[in-house]
Amino acid sequence: MSAAVLPPTVAAHLPTGLLIDGRWRPATGGGTFPVEDPGTGETLFDVADATTEDALAALDAADRAFPAWREAAPRTRSDLLRAVFDVMVARTEDIAALVTAEGGKPLAEARAEVQYAAEYVRWYSEQAVRLDGLARRAPAGTHHQMVLRRPVGPALAITPWNFPIAMIARKVAPALAAGCPIVVKPARLTPLTTAFFAELIREELAARDLPPGVIGVIPTASSGKVTSPVIADPRLRKLSFTGSTEVGRTLLGQAAQNILRTSMELGGNAPFLVFADADLDAAVEGAVAAKMRNSGQTCVAANRFLVQEPVAAEFADRLTAAFERLRVGHGTEPDVTVGPLIESAAVDHVAELVARATDDGARVRTGGEPIRGRGHFYPPTVLDRVPADTRAVTEEIFGPVAPVVSFATEDEGIALANATEFGLVAYAYTRDLSRALRLTEAVEAGMIGINRGMVSDASAPFGGVKLSGIGREGGEAGIEEYLEPVYVAW
């Protein structure tokens, strides 16, 4: 074990087991799997590898906790989440160190992720006491109507590796606020932050003498052996997943057997539109923000830079200069702005997309070759003269590569933006208000940033259209995913 990148207070007390019914314990049979630092390739910890038996035990605990948690006062649930928020803020440095250690992102980014995650916890602590119903006289005047909203039941959250604290907070906080116990299956590559977050909740539940099974954690190196039996169990009533469209399809098929409530935040292929009238300084700044968070390993990363012809060359020049000012290195090093990719396979994937693009006629302006040595690094890379049909444009890159594609007219730019089966987020830079409003109607995406390189906010709905998923997280919509309306007539 090498946990030198972690503060001693974190490394010495970090749970590495399974959280079932309020107790951290080994996996049945004692199996473990390693979690590595992607900046060095060294193992940080060995984590318990849950079995099917363990997964069902976690669901057992959630099911037992459901009646009491459902009946808990909204203020009780609110106060618990608010207490977790306060601890998250107080322990920002500890959580950020974990995010950097197992995920690789620079500490400044990790701190920002902790703040972002904490805002979801605070937001849903406030929403827990605002679950309004409805009472009215029926239009026909023959009776009265009442609509109540009650928690759907035990939930399963399957979280990704790229935002290990934000994604668990975005799923767990609304579930607990609504009155739903939840079992979390964290990503194999980043389970440590999930364990830390879950321990904060476990401690608050214990301090308030609340049901311990309200949250469970079942890390595993082989997802199917724990998720499939839980999804097949009729006691589970809600499934939330963030990850690839391919895996999402499989999970939706499994969820259909018991008609589970599902929310799926899946793949993306975000267009970043720059029109000739745009403020290019702002556009480049937004492009760096939209592309380079977590080294491009985010579903909302700008994937295709679609630039109108009169400014395409200048935009590519400026973006190249901006990328060359970025510093690549281990996330704990001072002044590093770009960390490693998550594993060697990710580096190979990005290198393959760049090689194919250059074979198809694209020009490398900066970067373009993996960085050899310890860790999994690929440099910030700008490609221009990129054909619109090369794989780096048609597929999600999930790495620090910015392909620049030029277009002539507004209609052509919109057509290129929509020429994908995905529709999670889109970005557009223009000074023309009328055009901006047209884009909000014409671009096929669940979220649109106008003259902004960042759109996500705890108080706003997060999600996409087409193959980017179903349902929403965040905002008022996020808690609705864990509630069902009950209509009463009298």
TrEMBL record:
Gene3D superfamilies: Aldehyde Dehydrogenase, Chain A, domain 1, Aldehyde Dehydrogenase, Chain A, domain 2. The keyword Ribosomal protein does not apply. One of its GO terms (molecular function) is succinate-semialdehyde dehydrogenase (NAD+) activity. InterPro entries: Ald_DH/histidinol_DH, Ald_DH_C, Ald_DH_CS_GLU, Ald_DH_N, Aldehyde_DH_dom, Aldehyde_DH_Superfamily. Keywords: Oxidoreductase. Pfam families: Aldedh. GO terms for biological process: gamma-aminobutyric acid catabolic process. Residues 24-485 form the Aldehyde dehydrogenase domain. The active site is at residue 265. Belongs to the aldehyde dehydrogenase family. This is NAD-dependent succinate-semialdehyde dehydrogenase. It comes from Cellulomonas denverensis.
